[in-house]
Design a protein that fits this description.
Elements: H1 3-22, H2 34-47, H3 51-83
């Protein structure tokens, strides 16, 4: 169940990275600097003049947050269920 969120989250992460790097900004390759990467992406979304593209970027980051939340929930469920035995 965890992988149902992890695979799409990584695909979305690389799409976000491609968008940020196309603007000439730095973006971390791996998820270890996720907060700074998302902060940079939010800055790109705010500066986007095209409303359709801005809406598309907002949907992309919302999908990332959804997948990340899914993974976090299942990770916590795994940890909690493992501690019972």
């Amino acid at each position: 169940m965890f992988m149902l969120g992890a695979v799409p989250a990584n695909i979305i992460w690389f799409r976000i990275a491609r968008i940020v790097r196309a603007k000439g900004l730095s973006f971390p390759f791996w998820n270890y600097a996720m907060i700074s990467g998302l902060r940079t992406f939010h800055a790109v979304v705010r500066d986007e003049p095209n409303p359709r593209r801005r809406a598309s970027h907002k949907r992309l980051v919302a999908a990332f947050y959804l997948c990340f939340t899914w993974c976090l929930i299942w990770f916590v469920a795994f940890v909690v269920s493992g501690s019972r035995s």
